[in-house]
Structure formats: structure tokens, C-alpha cells
Amino acid sequence: MGWLAATGPDHETAVSGEAEFVALHAPDLVRLSSAHTEIIPLRITVAEGYHLQANPAAYPYLVPTRLDMEPAGAIEVGRPIYPAGNPYQLEGSPDTLLVYDGAFDVKLPLRAVAHARPGRYTLRGTLTYQRCDHRTCFRPVSEPVALTVYLTE
Predict the structure, then answer these.
(1) 55 conformational bin, left if phi > 0, alpha if psi -120 to 50, beta if neither
(2) Of 7, 44, 129, 141, which sees the most CB atoms within 10 A?
(3) In the chain, where the domains are located
């Protein structure tokens, strides 16, 4: 299982095992300066005909899309900001789900601590999601993610 790398320029790598369904796109370059917070948009695309459970999911038994990133050295990671889900009804189901489809952004707050050393830092984490088609929701998937951040003075 490889890393879902998220580095520029406009880098796109498909999630291993799910390559035909989900991809993550990072900005061209992620730069932070010491003692400063940036909100980094990470674009997730979902193949046509598929959906991911939103965060929060419509029901507790569904697994919401979740990005969990660990801090790295002088880079602190805030709580991701998820978009609102779109209502969707599976064929033959009376329940309305909240889903993401097409392309959507998860915004990741990053902060460099004061007096941090300039340089390159790699944040690692996981992207967890539950994919559905028009009739079925599949088993949840958790894939590793890496994001390279350049800290300037």
C-alpha cells in the first residue's frame, strides 16, 4: 500500500486500491511562515456514479469521510473543515444519505509554531471514507496520506 502523496505542482495521486474511484489533489505549493496559520484546501475527487459519506454522515452506522493528519516537527494540524453533504437516496431505500460526489474540498488548518526552523516537513495521516454507488454502500477504506509543507522564515 503506497502513500497518497499530496505535494505540488498540482499533484494528484489516486488512493491505492481505490485508484479508479477516489483521488486527492494538493495545492501547487504549501508554504507556511513561523507563528502563522494557513487554511490549506485539499481537493478530493470521486469518480462519476459514486459518492462518499459526508462528514458528518446522515446516520451513526455510516462511516463519514475523515482526514486525520499528524503534526510534524514545528507544524501543528488543526481540525479539518468539511463541506456540507448533499442529500442522496440509494435505489430502493427510504433513507436520505448525506454524501459528497464529484469534487469537494476539505480545508486543513496548519500552523507553524513560533521560532520554528525553516525547511521541509512531511505530514502523514489517513483518509477514511465509505464509498457508495446508486444501490450499495461498500466497506469503509482507510488509506495513508502524506502532505509536504515548506516552512519559511
Answers:
(1) beta
(2) 129
(3) 4-152
Distance CA 140, CA 136 (A): 12
Ordered strands of the 103-112 beta sheet:
12-14, 22-25, 37-46, 103-112, 75-77
Domain at 4-152: CATH architecture: Sandwich (2.60)
Residues 135 and 132: their CA atoms lie apart, in Å, by: 7
CB neighbour burial string for 24-53, b if at least 16 within 10 angstroms, e if fewer = bbbbeebebebeeeeebebbbbbbeebbbb
CA 67 to chain centroid: 5
- For residue 114 the three cell numbers come to 513560533
User: How does the average pLDDT of the chain come out, rounded?
Assistant: 85
Query: Measured between alpha carbons, how far is 127 from 1 in angstroms, rounded to an integer?
Result: 13
According to the model, what pLDDT value does residue 5 have?
A: 38
pLDDT at 12: 40
Is 57 a residue whose pLDDT tops 90? yes
* Confidence check: pLDDT of 19 > 60: no
Distance CA 133, CA 115 (A): 48
**pLDDT-based confidence at 18, cuts 50/70/90?**
low
